[in-house]
DNA sequence: GTTTTTATGGTACAAAGGTATCATAAAAAA
DNA sequence: TTTTTTATGATACCTTTGTACCATAAAAAC
């Protein structure tokens, strides 16, 4: 048989090229020809590894979700020691969700494009992306629960509601930064302003 | 000369058809032929009134912003008497931003589609939409200022930061409801949970 | 009533994009 | 070495889409 190739790795490469195209020229311009050119291969190869465009788009959502998860984990590990305080973890997560460099800006822009597309295209299933968001909310809620146990959480606050709120606040601020209504600095100020009340040092 | 027609009203009709198509089948499917069919006129007419597709898309942003503003005003007037309390006004605004019926859901979905598109297509100027959002933030900040004057605002809270926060929270919750992560009821609960702390009765 | 300007319809054309087809290189297995 | 299966390239085709062109109806002005 032929030179055996790791199909999954090949698909990851193609998905990476797709995300670069989507970040730069929009998801609607992530056609087979554009992605092939970006990935440095022929259109036929993309067809060979994915068959149809839609399956390529679907696979790219998994790739995007995985990379977002990796980035969040890396930032958490980079900022926290062996026994991270809940506030440190939460702040790392929320900061990661803000577009403060070109990479995170691209991620968020592509995520928004997928999200908007999924609203009217039921065939496009973005479960990988939404599950990733749900997981983040659970981590925040857990950390708030830990904080309450150790008396760090302001009395009268509900961990679940606060977790939902922080996630929504962070998403909204991400939009505002993406759209140019707020700077990353303003967004971080607002997040800390809230965390100061929720988890006073 | 010919039967004179109100061009602007005609453009409004076309923009309405465009928004309906965008809400139902996605902004990427709002082509000249689809919009013409939805509006019940020929493709040639759309060209006559707009010339190019991009100008049609641009005009539709103004139409969308205007209708969102009208809806918000209507809701505020419906809920508030002659001397509306700040909390009442703010709650009406934030509730309006949530997709709780098919109309507001359509509005928000199309808004999200435009926003995502504008991130990678610099030619698409969505100033009408962003200015509308900015105006809402200013109204909230003003109302919080009024509340502070009359002692209704919890001491130590900054009206501007809180206005930014509420707007971002509301936008994030709108996304969550659109995406199915939260119900409208949960979103309203979270908003009231925060307003209770900010403007205690 | 003729003319002139606006409004509207039908259609053709060129580009783009997704998919299918034909062909071939390459390497493992016999 | 031959064969068989995988991997890759080039390209043709059909549909969609934005735009341009040609024609005509309708009404105001003279």
- CATH class category name of the domain at 61-198 in chain A: Mainly Alpha
Q: What fraction of the residues of chain A are assigned to beta strands by DSSP?
A: under 5%
Overall spatial form of chain A: elongated
Number of helices of chain A: 9
Poorly predicted spans of chain A = none
What share of the residues of chain A lie within helices?
over 70%
Largest sheet of chain A: none
Mean pLDDT of chain A: 94
According to DSSP, the number of beta strands of chain A is 0
- Specify the CATH homologous superfamily of the domain at 61-198 in chain A: Tetracycline Repressor, domain 2
**Structural class of chain A, please?**
mainly alpha
Cα-atom radius of gyration of chain A:
19 Å
**Strand/helix succession of chain A:** HHHHHHHHH
Query: Do you know the CATH topology of the domain at 61-198 in chain A?
Result: Tetracycline Repressor, domain 2
Largest interface: A-B, 44 and 44 residues
Named at the architecture level, the CATH assignment of the domain at 61-198 in chain A is: Orthogonal Bundle
| Oligomerization | homodimer
Distance between the termini of chain A: 64 Å
Give a structural overview.
- Two copies of one chain form a homodimer.
- Chain A is mainly α and 201 residues long.
- The first copy, chain A, has a domain at 61-198: Tetracycline Repressor, domain 2.
- Chain A has helices at 7-25, 32-39, 43-50, 53-79, 86-97, 102-120, 127-149, 159-179, 184-198.
- In chain A, helix 2 (32-39) crosses helix 3 and helix 5 packs antiparallel against helix 7 (127-149).
- Chain A is elongated.
- Chain A starts with 6 loop residues before the first helix and ends with a helix.
- The mean pLDDT of chain A is 94.
- Chain A binds chain B through residues 22-29, 109, 112-113, 115-121, 130, 133-134, 158, 161, 164-165, 167-173, 175-176, 178-182, 186, 189-190, 193-194, and chain B through 22-29, 109, 112-113, 115-121, 130, 133-134, 158, 161, 164-165, 167-173, 175-176, 178-182, 186, 189-190, 193-194.
- The first copy, chain A, binds a DNA duplex (30 and 30 nucleotides) through helix 3.
